[in-house]
Amino acid sequence: MHVQEIPTSFYRSIYQTSENVYLSRSAEAGSGEELTGRIDDILDRRLATTGGLSLSDAAELLLLVREHPLPEARKAVKDAARALRHRTFGHGVATMVPIEVTSFCSSTCRFCGWRADNKAMARMAITGAAIREQAKVLAAKGFSHFEIAGGDDLKFLKDNLAELIRGLKQETSAVNPDARVSLCLVPMHQEHYEALRDDGLDCVLTWQETYKEDLYNHHIPAGPKAWGIDHDLRLQKKNDNSVGWLHRMQSQELAIRAGLQAGLGTMIGLAEIAEADILSVIMHGQKLIEHYADTIQPLIIGMPAWNAIPTEETDRRATERPPFEVEQNFELLSAIYLLAFPDNHAWVFANGRVNPTVQTDCVETASFFTSTLVQIAPGAYLGLDGNKVPRDMFDRVRGLPDGALSRDEILSGEQFVHYLDSHENFVAGFEARGMNVIPDRAKLLHADPPHPAVVAAE
Ligand code: SF4
């Protein structure tokens, strides 16, 4: 690719620019009647074009989250998003499933159950055979998008990742030719993403957590996510954390340059001014869309939230999480994200961190992309039939008894507490609202050629 990289000064400016824009709109909000009038005008202009919102207009909509929660204006934003969702994605919804491959992690994110210093947490890493077994089970259910996720486990990255991606892509493609594979792990470098693309990777998801660098450094004090990894996938020397932060901000660009789809998102409510972090996602995504206009695939806009963790005694939410009503605002935020980006360029990702009704509302209003049947522990889908999972499905296990593992034992090691419902129940819920499941490949912006790994297996 001959396009110049986006300068690092852009990444360093995102949060402060967004906060300034949000605070200036806040200071000039005026009366509820004036704000409602401006929001009606913004929505009319947005629906009359295919382009996204200016940062200033997106900030006006974000005033409705907490500062001016005007019920009629909030409803108008959701109604506008529904109209936009309908004209861009019709009744289609794409379902994805995360497959956790390792809960060993060398990073220390204060909000996460898998942080390295959480000694109460059971840990597991699965084998290549285990991912192939899970791939068959999940592909047969009708999923077409499979996400490999896990902790920052550098041994796993070096020794297992390429084989797991190849195995997952081959098994799922054999059942569903539309199968696509994404990765949500520590950010790597462009050459790693290019090599993994040849193994069958389609997409890289990187959640920023927060664009506010000092807050990022507070919550992520050590490990690969703080200090970054080098081109040999080794932990960088301890530094002032700016390497890990910047690498995380650039991960989407590196993936796009490698020919992959990218996902971005911030943890809703981690920053005191949560709205500025959300605006940062919009500013970042719009820049990527503008800069890589000829090649970019739709951006997947994640909406993570700080949920409880299973090891309650090590949960820091009570003392460290700023107040923010995630479930009350999830649908509105999904609507703002959809409206903010140009038509067809954003797949807002509704996930299981909110209850299934809120998640389904969000799908109906704004989300083309959503997760069902989420289990966030390595090997968890192998126990869906109620049988114990043989130990040889695990490469490493720590903190659990010897022998085959029960479903409860596996789920005791989940990354965080979340809502669980079957894929079938979710699909029935979507269909009850007139939506139908389609492969996400159907809504890509550019044709995606077959992967060498899949062609070789045929
Ligand atoms: S959020 Fe990811 S990197 Fe951070 S502790 Fe959890 S698993 Fe590790």
3D architecture notes:
With 458 residues, the chain is an alpha/beta fold. The chain has a single domain, classed as Aldolase class I (TIM Barrel, Alpha-Beta Barrel). It contains 18 helices and eleven strands. The chain has helices spanning 8-27, 32-47, 55-62, 71-89, 128-140, 154-159, 161-175, 190-199, 213-219, 224-227, 242-257, 274-291, 317-320, 326-340, 356-365, 407-411, 423-432, 452-457; strands at 92-102, 123-126, 145-150, 180-184, 203-209, 261-266, 299-302, 346-350, 369-371, 394-398, 436-437. It has an eight-stranded parallel β-barrel with strand order 1-3-4-5-6-7-8-9, surrounded by six helices. Helix 12 (274-291) links the parallel strand 6 (261-266) and strand 7 (299-302). Helix 1 (8-27) packs across helix 12, helix 3 runs antiparallel to helix 14 and helix 14 (326-340) runs parallel beside helix 15 (356-365). The longest helix is centred in the N-terminal third of the chain and has 20 residues, at 8-27. The model has no long low-confidence stretch (mean pLDDT 94). The chain binds iron/sulfur cluster (SF4).
